[in-house]
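Bench log. Compound arrived from synthesis this morning; before running ITC I wanted a structural hypothesis for how pyridoxal-5'-phosphate sits in the protein. Inputs:
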Amino acid sequence: MSLLGSFKNPFKSNDSSHFPNDLEPLWMPFSANKDFKKNPRLISKAKGMYYYTPSGEKILDGVAGLWCCNAGHNREEIVEAIKKQAEELDFAPAFNMGHPKSFELSSRLTQLAPEGFNHVFFGNSGSEAVESALKIALAYWREKGQNEKTILIGRKRGYHGTNFGGLSVGGIEKNRDQFKKFLPEVYHLSDTHNLQKNAFSKGQPIWGEELTKELEDLIIEHGSEKIAAVIIEPVAGSTGVLIPPKNYLNKIKKICTENNILLIFDEVITGFGRLGKAFASEYFNITPDLICLAKGINSGTVPMGAVLVQDEIYNAFMSKKDEKVIDLFHGYTYSAHPLACAASLATLDVYKNDNLFERASELSFYWQEAVHSLKGTRNVIDIRNLGLIGAVELEPMDGKPTRRAYNVLCEAFHDQKTLLRVTGDIIALSPPLIIAKEQIDQLIENLKITLQKTE
Ligand SMILES: Cc1ncc(COP(=O)(O)O)c(C=O)c1O
């Protein structure tokens, strides 16, 4: 049954062609469907820092869509590249066939990547990048003849997408609870969140390095000869922005290297300038073995994910005696889709021509002070930041965890014309890298007003 009968269009629209007749058929992902359909939040256009509702209301984008649109919305250069590509080549098979832009893009990405990453494997999302990285890691050890290396290690509160591999190494309880079926031989390190020790830290918190001992303990318990890989988000995003404590990531890297365990950085949100460098690996000066990418790879315009692969790993697959056999039995119909590649090439040009990564770095102090100015605002119990990432954690409502932040999300959209992202009782902020200082001020002011009004 359609809910539309009881639903009153909140938009004073003279452009009703943009407003759908029936909201019911769509089962929206990660959404409270029933509530949304009673009071929808629709966006139908975008430009620069703003979304527009079907009735033309302007919405300030505080989260780059969903941590994707780092170059800002509807950049002409990217739009033109997609249009041109669509006219030229709609689709090309990716298995034992190729199209020029997939090779061109691979070269461009490896030029941007830390040293040693000279190969790229494409998928269509962050989840597929993660699945690909996990499978490459497992297959790598088979190629090396170390068949016992099968254990994967993730972290509590980690998010690595929604497919079964990513879900298994991921550690957000709510995402796992409904399914209860995971890959075997997966272990989780603790997350690094600790309000007693680290609340209101600016940048990387001081406490937490000692948590890396848990990795050493797992190695003692299971033996390094059985552990294939550790996967980590350099900055955990979807769980509500957990900034890695000082020295934590270096220590994890050191333990992995010393024990011959692959380290996978899931940079789906930290990639492409979010921390003021191309990748978090560069920001933290840590070289993992595999890097997962998506989102900012083409500023969210066409679905695409990728894995950056170190030479040592790629070469292990290329040493086959018979060159006419497949080296990795994995891939997707839409791997390196021409539209996604064209969009990515244009996006990389925009990042470079507009110096967007440097811009993010230059803005990060202003951003930090702005986000932390919310300290003392109603219900705020922690504020975190790094690069152009921020988070505001709220005291949960009695007996109704997540409700307060959800109310803030709705209120901010409808009343303050601001797009936020919430997860649990945490508000995450990750604006497009083109944001101006006045827009940072506006975003924080809108959030402050919303917090003061929300129960
Ligand atoms: C760190 C990380 N990995 C993987 C994913 C999954 O990406 P997608 O939603 O494109 O599958 C996300 C999405 O937010 C993410 O933040």
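What the model suggests: The longest helix spans residues 126-143. The chain has a mean pLDDT of 95.
ITC booked for Thursday regardless.
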